[in-house]
Amino acid sequence: MTKSVAVDGQVEATPGTIPHPPADAGEWKAGLVVYETHAKLKVDGELAIEKAECTFSFFGTNSQAVGALVTASSTVELVAGSTKLKESGRGMLLAEDYAEDHWGNKLAAQTTNILKTA
Question: Which pTM value belongs to this model?
Answer without folding.
Answer: 0.87
